């Protein structure tokens, strides 16, 4: 069973009567005048990261950041979180304090608070954060409309290339930093929420996350590859390591930019907000259709992105 | 640093502006007319349980139950939860489905819903559940009053003896079941909330959890051991294995009964609710005092209970 089918299985087996449960970046429950968003992301040693090339501070900050990204992708603002921490005794008490110092730094940096949790020794470092947020108007994956423009808020692929280099033992450089240091779009998310129809954060790869929007919305898409931003650094690194740039850009994963769909007239209004984004395609009415053109030439990527069940 | 000091360190470093954060069985945030309670408990393979003597169904149900117990201890009703699951690939897809079947069974049994989460492969089975609940009037640890009676809702020590037997390779019998099958006090918790001053669930041992109440409230306690319920099964098992019964009863852990303190006049009213509980002592004004009498004779247990940092 792949991840998409597994999520469908869970949605069917676990109906949610309080609001929107399984299947988006966060659950949504109406509370008072606005909506409470709750998301949960795991970071497990030797699955999501290795302490060979991550410091504890980097791991702690990333564990908060990936959850902030989920709340931002729903158009919300993160407020506080709960930490489930399995911490190897071998790392020692000082390392444990380092971890909490980093967590405190993250709290200050992103204006969120630690509200509780549970702590245990464990064979590997295991971090489970549940983030609570709020939104006036949550944005879902399932509301993309035919004719919508498709936008992204930043570059994709650099994180994946950075990870590849880290795994090769190259531990310094800007793309490695891109992989290790997640910059969640906490400012843009709530602004975009006032204009867009659908939104998701690109955590598993541009195409796989776009497909999640298409599937949820019953729509298709046309992507103009040449509109996707690719930095000089990225081009040079790909060329140096003889890599086809298309694959990391389209299927890389862990980019944590926001992907959104927006009506053309709303996109005109959005320009007045002066936030950076790139229009990379458009939503088509045909369910499941996905056409990728690079300067008019059809391209077909080898993989769609990271599937938690297959990798 | 022991657990109590670590919690103090965290409370100081992570102030919570939305309500009551770190330091009780759950956080408390006022939302609308009542209070939202959130708790998070980890279950980690080979730390909290072993698959040598737990079935996946037992682990899944326990992972829900321990969180229900925390919400009940705050006088609340659990509503829905988020699951962070690290699942070993080696166990196979069928085992994974078994796990979710058990989770569904737990949802039906306890009237809670799965609202979301995250899933990953992992070297060991990791379960992190964040439970959301509600209370009209949350009950804290810090409100015990001098002169309060101390009550518990059930027996203690059987779970610890059960675990000891399981570790010895004895895998059948009622005390083993007591350890593996947590029966959270979801009915009694909200009823008690109408009468008691302070409450906690006994997860780490009667004395250690009582001390948490005493420390938080700045009070002392006198315990009358002979009032603590001990079953015939427990007495016979202790005698068979030449164990001093006092230790598991006072310091056993994983009992998941509720311990509460209640004004004597309120206790009279509580009797009309016809729920089972036992008055085992009283709160004294002297901070930190803890006197345990067995039919008038002073006893001093060797340990207080399970400390997550020392064990």
Which characteristics define this entry?
alpha+beta; 311 residues; five-stranded mixed beta sheet; 33% helix; homodimer; seven-stranded mixed beta sheet; 60s Ribosomal Protein L30, Chain: A; Phosphoribosyl-aminoimidazole Synthetase, Chain A, domain 2
In CATH's first tier, which class of the largest domain in chain A applies?
A: Alpha Beta
| Range of strand content of chain A | 25-35%
CATH topology of the largest domain in chain A: Phosphoribosyl-aminoimidazole Synthetase, Chain A, domain 2
CATH architecture of the largest domain in chain A: Alpha-Beta Complex
How much helicity do the residues of chain A have?
25-40%
Oligomer: homodimer
User: What is the approximate shape of chain A?
Assistant: globular
What count of helical segments of chain A does DSSP give? 10
Which two chains share the most extensive interface?
A: A-B, 56 and 56 residues
What class do helices, strands and sheet pairing of chain A give?
alpha+beta
Q: Spans of chain A of 5+ residues with little confidence (pLDDT < 50)?
A: none
Describe the structure.
- By secondary structure, chain A is of the alpha+beta class.
- Chain A folds into two domains: 133 residues, 60s Ribosomal Protein L30, Chain: A (2-Layer Sandwich), CATH 3.30.1330; 150 residues, PurM-like C-terminal domain (Phosphoribosyl-aminoimidazole Synthetase, Chain A, domain 2, Alpha-Beta Complex), CATH 3.90.650.
- Helix content of chain A is 33%, strand content 25%.
- Chain A has a seven-stranded mixed β-sheet, with helices on both faces. In chain A, strands 1-2-5-3-4 form a five-stranded mixed β-sheet.
- The mean pLDDT of chain A is 93.
- At the A-B interface, α1, β1, β2, β3 and α3 of A face α1, β2, β3, β4 and α3 of B.
